[in-house]
Amino acid sequence: MLRFAPSPTGDMHIGNLRVALFNSLLSRRRNEPLIVRIEDTDKERNIEGKDKEILEILDLFGIEYKDVIYQSGNLRFHRAMAIQLLQDKKAFNCFCTPEELDRKRELAKARHKPFRYDDTCTHLPPEATIDNENPFTVRLKRPEAPIVVHDIIKGEATFDPEDIDSFIIMRAEKYPTYNFACAVDDMLADISLVIRGEDHFSNTPKQIAVRNALGYDKQIEYAHLPIILNEEGKKMSKRDNASSVKWMLSEGFLPAAVANYLVLIGNKTPQEIFTMDEAVEWFDLENISRAPARFDIEKLRFINREHLKRMEDKELSRYVGFADDAIGKLAKLYLEEASTTKELKAKIAAIFAEKSVPDEFKESAEIKAVIKTAPFFETFDALKRHIVDTTGIKGKPLFKSLRILLTGAEHGPDLDAVYTHIKHYLGEIVK
Ligand code: GLU
Fold first, then answer.
1. Which domain holds residue 407?
2. pTM score, two decimals?
């Protein structure tokens, strides 16, 4: 079983989408189901509706999952396991106040030392905890031996007990911390492989420590994906528009192209343009680079254009607001100058819009009048001949006016080719 575990705390980031895509590819390759776990235990940071939005995005990207579970639904298990750990003396109640801990944290900082829990409450006698009415947290006792993490992408890393530390597993409000809930949930769901962002790498030994303390000995495999950098080489943040999946979609990037791009970067792939169904055939985590991937919007534009070229005409037509093949074919002519459905839509809209013709195209009024009363012509040549014969206008003035009247732009693809796809719409285009 694999899992994708997003927090419903903001817009979905492309890094999260990349994690979801990798999970989906691996689940399909291994023939193991994928579950979505909405990590909603941090009540203050949850945003209403973000869970639905995440699921909608997964659907849009064709990511299939067996089940959706909400982490908050496992609260009784988190509490039961915490009690178990207390009974087994693998965990202890900690009465240190946030103020005391902050003071010690400051002190460590002043000494340029990392803050570590100083065992104030680790060995309290039972009566000291029973009689104590102050709020308390529950901490897991630091492990006795180092924990080695084997990561498919990052390799092996050893974490010392001091660095894992006696960390908090239940907060004073008796809700689990992320590391505890995550470790328990992965165990309950019988997860075999965790694929997530590199920012969680240092959490992994803590999560392993929780499961070790609970006596769970199944080894979970890990793969931590390197972060995605922006074009300046900095970690992509909310301030980078392109970090938001919603923004990408609203800009007219196709889900198939975004998925292609996110699987391509930092990877060795047999070809550059592919679908997820194709990637299932060869995808291998071993080929993922350890180095951060760098986001390049021009490359994404190129990939989007390639997917647009391969799209069925009728489908493309729907993307630009029409329903027939001809408009899909027409849109494809614009792929030299446009690379997103939003840009294509604007090109097609300009063709059908009321046109304002600049004064310099003084012949256009006469040409327009002729087109409006002309019979249907199968070819652009025949239409041109008819206009020349009726008005005597030819050469550059004829072409420039025709381009404006037929496409609403002064430049663009070959008019002959454009005409092939718009000839049945002339009544709507030249009004
Ligand atoms: N909820 C975490 C996040 O969105 C992911 C945790 C995990 O995959 O273990 O960053």
1. 353-429
2. 0.94
